[in-house]
């Protein structure tokens, strides 16, 4: 995010973030898809981004609108220079799901050390199905960016033979997803 621009979450969900983040009501399609994409963008950035992961301004959800630090162009205003990390601690707000998923991503690396692995193999990029499959370390990552389709039995090739199980699922109920995996 550039200073004065919208955050990733606000680009995805825009003004619906003001009224649609309550878990006390059903999520609108914009909020539902925005949160799903936010989690997936964070995860694919972390998993393919190199040796480390930095949740930098604009990528996080503690700035629900846009970021603008005091500068001459905004008359040295502090109005948009605030992080609202407390949003993730309010139990009835959906920010808790994004925060929980970020914590789970970091825990996954703590357990499997994939960020420090030099092994990165992209094995499938299917534009029509909106699927990206890659290996990083001993993990296989499967991302489905399709807005409406899920794929049962989608086959992926792996470097190492064996049985695999889901280690982290962005669509899990505990992360505000629909539990389709």
UniProtKB/TrEMBL annotation:
User: Which GO cellular component does the record give, naming just one?
Assistant: cytoplasm
GO:BP terms for this protein?
polysaccharide catabolic process
Q: Name one Pfam family in it.
A: Alpha-amylase_C
Q: Name one GO molecular function term.
A: cation binding
Residue ranges occupied by any Alpha-amylase/branching enzyme C-terminal all beta domain in the UniProt entry: 124-178
What InterPro entries does the record point to? A-amylase/branching_C, GH, Glyco_hydro_b
Name under which the protein is recorded: Alpha-amylase/branching enzyme C-terminal all beta domain-containing protein
The scientific name of the source species is: Aegilops tauschii subsp. strangulata
């Amino acid at each position: 995010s550039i200073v004065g621009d919208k955050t990733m979450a606000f680009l995805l969900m825009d003004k619906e973030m003001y009224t649609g983040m309550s878990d006390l009501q059903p999520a609108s399609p914009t909020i539902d898809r925005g949160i799903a994409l936010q989690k997936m963008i964070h995860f694919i950035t972390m998993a393919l981004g190199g040796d480390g992961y930095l949740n930098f301004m604009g990528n996080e959800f503690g700035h629900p609108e846009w970021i603008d630090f005091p500068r001459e162009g905004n008359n040295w205003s502090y109005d948009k220079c605030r992080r609202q990390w407390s949003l993730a601690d309010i139990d009835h707000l959906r920010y808790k799901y994004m925060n929980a998923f970020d914590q789970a991503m970091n825990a996954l690396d703590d357990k499997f050390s994939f960020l420090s692995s030099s092994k990165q193999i992209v094995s499938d990029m299917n534009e029509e199905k909106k699927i990206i499959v890659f290996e990083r370390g001993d993990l296989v990552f499967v991302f489905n960016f399709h807005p409406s389709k899920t794929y049962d039995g989608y086959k992926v090739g792996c470097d190492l033979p064996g049985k695999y199980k889901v280690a982290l699922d962005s669509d899990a109920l505990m992360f505000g997803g629909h539990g389709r995996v």
